[in-house]
C-alpha cells in the first residue's frame, strides 16, 4: 500500500498522546508511564507516533520535502509498535506502525535513509546477514550438535537461528542449548547451516521492501524444500517477520511458525521436556516487541472505514506471544517471577529494533538503560527475555550501568533446570 | 486547497540566542519538526486539518528557560504560545509568526512556580477540582456559543472518562 492509502489514518489522529503513554488503567507509576523510547528521548512531538502521522500527512500534502530531516525523525524509531498498541486502546481506525513503515518505504524510494542502513543492506546482499559476517560461517554455531542437514534431508522441524544467534559469540551457548533441548526431546530437527540466510524482516522494517521480499521468498523456498511442518525460531525478530512482515509482503511459508518458547511449552506439556532441578532466581521478564505486539498476524489491507473492521483484522497487540515464556519460567522450580510495570502489549522496547541499534547507539542505549532501571525496581536479580537482540542490548546496558543484573534467555533457564545445573 | 504555512521565518539573529538558552537539541526550526504542532484534529473539510506552522519549537526544561524564551521573543517581536499536544491543536500556534513552547520536558519538573503540571495518565475527571479553569487558561478554546471545544460537523465529544491528560500543561494564573 502506498502512503496515500493511509491518509485517513493520518488525518484521523486526535492528538491525544495515547501513543506516548501506557494506558491509564495500566499505569503503576509516573516514573514508568511512558511507552515510546523515541519521544521519551527526543521530546519533539514529531518523534511520537502521532507526530509521525503528521509527518506523513505533511509529506503527502507537499508541506515538507522528503529530505534528511524526515529520515532523521522516521528512523530514530525502534518500530516497536508501542504507539500503535496504545493508540488502539482508544482508537480502532488508525494503524500507526503501518504508516511509519510506509513513510520509511517512501524514504527509501527517495534515497533518504541513514548510511548505516545502506551498509547493513549491502552486508545483507553480500553475506546474507545483517552483520556482514561471512556466510560460510553461519552454521558454525551448530557444530558438534549432530543436527540434521535440512538441505540434504527431509525434517519435521526446521530450526532457523537468525543472524544474531548465528554470529554473536556471547550468545553461542544460548542457541546451542536451545537446539539441544529440542533435539533431546526426540524431535526430528534440522538446520540449514550455511544455506540459512537473514529472514529479511530488518530490511522490510527499514523500508527496503524489495530486498526484504527477496529474502522472504528465499526463506519460503528453503522451508518448502526441507519438507518441514514447523518452522521453529529462537529469535523474536525473525518470528515477528514470519508472522507479520511476510504476509504483508505476500509471502506464505505454508507451515506452522513457532517461537522456541511456544515449542518448549508444548514439549513440556507432553512431558518431553521435564524440569528437574531448582534454579533459585528472582526473575523479571522482558517482552520482546517482535514476539509480542509486533508478531500479530497481518490480516490484509482493509478498504473503507477501519472502524468496521472485525477484531480478527485489527492488530492491537493483544494477540502476541506473552504467556508461553512466562509459563515456562513459572514451570522451573525455584524461579520467582516478578513483573515489571510495563508488560505485554504495553511493554517498553529494549531499543535494539527498527534499525536503531545499527544507526543510533544513543537512543538504543537510552531505551535499554530505562528497561534495566525498571527491572531493578522490581527487586529481581535477573532479567529473562526471548530475543537475542533484546538480550544483547540489555546485557550491554546493564554492563554500562554497572549494575548486578544478569540477563538470560528463557531457554537458558529451561536448560539449567532440565540438564541438571543447580544454581543458587 | 491551500494549507497555511507561516509566511515569515525566524530572524537569523534570534536562532543562536534560542540555541544558547536551550541547547541545540531543544530548539528546532525544521519543518519536519514544526509540522508536528500544526495539525488540527477532526478538521477534514476546508480549510483542512492544518493550522499555521510555528516558526520554531522550543523545549524548555524549567522556569528560567521559559523566561529566556519569552525574553528573546519580546526582543524580536515574536509571538509565543505554550502548548504541548493534547486533544486537537487548540493550543497550537493558530496564527502566523509564533514560537511554540512545548512544555513536555519540564513535565518532569513539577516545581515550576506558578505553573501547574498535569502528569501523564490521569483522567480529566480526576483533575476537575483544580482544572476548572482550563478553558480560561488557554487549554482549549471554547466555542463562542456553546462553550464546547470546536469540532467538525458530525463529530461528537467522547465521554469524559475517555479523555486522557497526557502532555497537557497549562498555567494557573494567579
Brief account:
The complex is a heterodimer of chains A (424) and B (174). By secondary structure, chain A is α/β, with parallel strands linked by helices.
Could you give the topology of this structure?
The complex is a heterodimer of chains A (424) and B (174).
Chain A: H1 7-11, H2 37-42, H3 49-60, H4 68-75, H5 82-87, H6 96-109, H7 115-127, E1 148-149, E2 157-159, H8 163-167, H9 172-184, E3 189-191, H10 201-206, H11 209-226, E4 230-233, H12 236-249, E5 256-259, H13 260-269, E6 281-285, H14 323-331, E7 335-338, H15 356-359, H16 361-377, E8 382-385, H17 388-401, E9 406-409, H18 410-419
Parallel strand pairs in A: 1-3, 2-3, 2-4, 4-5, 6-7, 6-8, 8-9
Helix pairs in contact in A: 3-6, 4-6, 9-18, 13-14, 16-17
Chain B: H1 14-22, E1 27-28, H2 31-34, E2 56-58, H3 63-76, E3 79-82, E4 98-101, E5 115-117, E6 122-123, H4 124-131, E7 164-165, E8 169-171
Parallel strand pairs in B: 2-4, 3-4
Antiparallel strand pairs in B: 1-2, 5-8, 6-7
Write up this protein:
The complex is a heterodimer of chains A (424) and B (174). Chain A contains 18 helices and nine strands. Chain A has helices at 7-11, 37-42, 49-60, 68-75, 82-87, 96-109, 115-127, 163-167, 172-184, 201-206, 209-226, 236-249, 260-269, 323-331, 356-359, 361-377, 388-401, 410-419, and strands at residues 148-149, 157-159, 189-191, 230-233, 256-259, 281-285, 335-338, 382-385, 406-409. Chain B has 174 residues and is of the alpha/beta class. Chain B has helices spanning 14-22, 31-34, 63-76, 124-131; strands at 27-28, 56-58, 79-82, 98-101, 115-117, 122-123, 164-165, 169-171. In chain B, helix 1 (14-22) runs antiparallel to helix 3 (63-76). At the A-B interface, helix 3 and helix 4 of A face helix 2 and strand 6 of B.
Amino acid at each position: 500500500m502506498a502512503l496515500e492509502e493511509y491518509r485517513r489514518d493520518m488525518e484521523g489522529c486526535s492528538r491525544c498522546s495515547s501513543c506516548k503513554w501506557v494506558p491509564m488503567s495500566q499505569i503503576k507509576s509516573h516514573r514508568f508511564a511512558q511507552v515510546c523510547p523515541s519521544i521519551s528521548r527526543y521530546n519533539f512531538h514529531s518523534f511520537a507516533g502521532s507526530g509521525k502521522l503528521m509527518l506523513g500527512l505533511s509529506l503527502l500534502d507537499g508541506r515538507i520535502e522528503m529530505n534528511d530531516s524526515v529520515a532523521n525523525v522516521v528512523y530514530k524509531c525502534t518500530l516497536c509498535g508501542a504507539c500503535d498498541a496504545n493508540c488502539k486502546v482508544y482508537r480502532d481506525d488508525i494503524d500507526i506502525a503501518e504508516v511509519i513503515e510506509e513513510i520509511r518505504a517512501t524514504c527509501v524510494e527517495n534515497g533518504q535513509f541513514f548510511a548505516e542502513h545502506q551498509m547493513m543492506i549491502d552486508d545483507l546482499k553480500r553475506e546474507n546477514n545483517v552483520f556482514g559476517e561471512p556466510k560460510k560461517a553461519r552454521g558454525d554455531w551448530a557444530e558438534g550438535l549432530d543436527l540434521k542437514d535440512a538441505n540434504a534431508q527431509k525434517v519435521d522441524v526446521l530450526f532457523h537461528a537468525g543472524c544474531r544467534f548465528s554470529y554473536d559469540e556471547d550468545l553461542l551457548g544460548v542457541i546451542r542449548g536451545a537446539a539441544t533441548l529440542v533435539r533431546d526431546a526426540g524431535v526430528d530437527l534440522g538446520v540449514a547451516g550455511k544455506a540459512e540466510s537473514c529472514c529479511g524482516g530488518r530490511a522490510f522494517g527499514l523500508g527496503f521492501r524489495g530486498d526484504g521480499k527477496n529474502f522472504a521468498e528465499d526463506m519460503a523456498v528453503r522451508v518448502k524444500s526441507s519438507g518441514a511442518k514447523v518452522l521453529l525460531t529462537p529469535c523474536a525478530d525473525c518470528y515477528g517477520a514470519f508472522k507479520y512482515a511476510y504476509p504483508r509482503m505476500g509471502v506464505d511459508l505454508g507451515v506452522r511458525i513457532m517461537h522456541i518458547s511456544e515449542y518448549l511449552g508444548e514439549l513440556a506439556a507432553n512431558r518431553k521436556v521435564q524440569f528437574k532441578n531448582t534454579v533459585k532466581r528472582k526473575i523479571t521478564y522482558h517482552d520482546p516487541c517482535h514476539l509480542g505486539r509486533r508478531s500479530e498476524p497481518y490480516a490484509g489491507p482493509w478498504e473503507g472505514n477501519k472502524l468496521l473492521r472485525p477484531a480478527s483484522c485489527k492488530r492491537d497487540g493483544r494477540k502476541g506471544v506473552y504467556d508461553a515464556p512466562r509459563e515456562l519460567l513459572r514451570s522451573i522450580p525455584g524461579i520467582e517471577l516478578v513483573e515489571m510495570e510495563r508488560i505485554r502489549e504495553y511493554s517498553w522496547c529494549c531499543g535494539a529494533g527498527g534499525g536503531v541499534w545499527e544507526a543510533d547507539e544513543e537512543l538504543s542505549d537510552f531505551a535499554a538503560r530505562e528497561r534495566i532501571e525498571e527491572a531493578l525496581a522490581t527487586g529481581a536479580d535477573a532479567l529473562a527475555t526471548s530475543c537475542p537482540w533484546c538480550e544483547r542490548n540489555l546485557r550491554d546496558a546493564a554492563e554500562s550501568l554497572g549494575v548486578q543484573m544478569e540477563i538470560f534467555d528463557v531457554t537458558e533457564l529451561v536448560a539449567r533446570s532440565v540438564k541438571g545445573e543447580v544454581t543458587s | 486547497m491551500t494549507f497555511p504555512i507561516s509566511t515569515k521565518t525566524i530572524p537569523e539573529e534570534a536562532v543562536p540566542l534560542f540555541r544558547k538558552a536551550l541547547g541545540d537539541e531543544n530548539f528546532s526550526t525544521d519543518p519536519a519538526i514544526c509540522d508536528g504542532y500544526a495539525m488540527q484534529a477532526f478538521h477534514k473539510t476546508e480549510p483542512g486539518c492544518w493550522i499555521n506552522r510555528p516558526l520554531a519549537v522550543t523545549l524548555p526544561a524549567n522556569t528560567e528557560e521559559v523566561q529566556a524564551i519569552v525574553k528573546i521573543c519580546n526582543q524580536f517581536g515574536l509571538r509565543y504560545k505554550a502548548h504541548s499536544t493534547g486533544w486537537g491543536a487548540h493550543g497550537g500556534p493558530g496564527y502566523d509568526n509564533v514560537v511554540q513552547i512545548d512544555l513536555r520536558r519540564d513535565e518532569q519538573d513539577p516545581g515550576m512556580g506558578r505553573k501547574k503540571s498535569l502528569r501523564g495518565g490521569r483522567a480529566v475527571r480526576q483533575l476537575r477540582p483544580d482544572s476548572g479553569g482550563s478553558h480560561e487558561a488557554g487549554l482549549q478554546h471554547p466555542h463562542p456559543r456553546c462553550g464546547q471545544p470546536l469540532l467538525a460537523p458530525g463529530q461528537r465529544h467522547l465521554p469524559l472518562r475517555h479523555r486522557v491528560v497526557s502532555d497537557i500543561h497549562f498555567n494557573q494564573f494567579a
